[in-house]
Design a protein that fits this description.
It is a single chain. This protein is an alpha/beta fold. It has twelve helices and seven strands. A hairpin with an 8-residue loop joins β6 and β7. α10 runs antiparallel to α11 and α10 packs across α12.
Length: about 300
């Protein structure tokens, strides 16, 4: 599906633009998948400012966002990736995925001065809340949680601005805070241009089947949720997992970052293997449990 990669400084209005674009495209009868960093961070049980202060946590969520975009690829519906996307190398990875899938992409740059962005940030007053017992993570959104001055300045220093002469940022739409969003131009970029032909670098290795990847990821997310639940109540030791004859060993050193990193490694290995023969989904719980046990140190 066509992808809109939204990028900009912290508090530059990215989520506002994402919602405006979503409403416009939905009004034209398009199915729109809005993938939001503001929802992914609390869903991963990270507080906003501690998340942006830890590069390892950022890698976990960036990988999750990219995987979710990949799962929803087709040639008609739209993915809007609402995140900072401040690393040009990450935007290049998204460009390669789009090119390999033979669909279109555009970049929406929310352009703003640091001073104005900080002024917008100071207007945010919501507390940084994580889900409690029995509360679903899907309902949380930290877009109105303010950045600390330290984190705001650090993100501004890290930001790699998109440029129209970089092929992975093109076509590029620039939106100032006072501008009306050029939704017509974005629509033309997505639906009235030809996708770039894939080359060897974007075709090899080929994409794992999206339906298979979606089911695979759901199974692993369920297992990780069970493990984190055991950790929360300090139920360390052997934990039985449905679909696996082997128990997973829950250790005191386990955490969400480590488990999600193992999940990504397992997905990569299964996608490579699926080019010859996909692992039956019924075997995935057993294999993932064994993979966790083999790659976990601690007691």
């Amino acid at each position: 599906m066509p992808i809109v990669v939204i990028t900009g400084l912290p508090a530059s209005g990215k989520s506002t633009r994402a919602r405006q674009l979503q409403e416009h495209l939905a009004g034209l009868g398009k199915k729109v998948y809005l993938i939001s960093e503001n929802e992914a961070v609390p869903k991963a049980l990270f507080e906003k400012n501690s998340f942006f202060g830890d590069s390892q946590k950022e890698k976990v969520v960036r990988s999750d966002l990219k995987s979710e975009a990949l799962r929803n690829l087709n040639k008609e519906d739209v993915v809007i990736l609402d995140a900072g996307n401040y690393i040009k190398g990450y935007r290049y990875e998204l460009y390669c995925i789009t090119k390999s899938a033979r669909t279109t992409q555009c970049t929406l740059f929310c352009c703003i001065s640091q001073e104005q962005a900080w002024s917008f940030n100071e207007q945010r007053q919501e507390p940084d809340e994580l889900p409690g017992d029995g509360q679903t993570t899907q309902l949380l959104n930290n877009s109105n949680v303010p950045y600390t001055r330290e984190i705001f300045d650090a993100l501004c220093m890290r930001y790699e601005e998109p440029h129209s002469n970089s092929r992975w940022d093109c076509p590029l739409t620039v939106a100032l805070p006072e501008d009306r969003l050029d939704v017509e131009g974005i629509y033309r970029a997505l639906y009235e241009t030809q996708p770039l032909p894939p080359n060897q670098s974007t075709q090899n290795p080929p994409l794992c089947a999206t339906n298979y990847l979606f089911e695979l990821d759901n199974i692993m997310q369920t297992i990780i949720k069970e493990i984190l639940g055991a950790i929360k109540i300090k139920a360390f030791g052997q934990l039985r997992i449905e679909g696996s004859t082997s128990p997973v060993k829950v250790t005191t050193t386990m955490n969400a970052i480590q488990l999600n990193r193992l999940r990504q490694k397992f997905i990569t290995s299964r996608c490579r293997a699926s080019q010859t023969a996909a692992t039956p989904l019924a075997q995935v719980p057993q294999m993932f449990v064994q993979f966790i046990n083999a790659n976990t140190i601690g007691c």
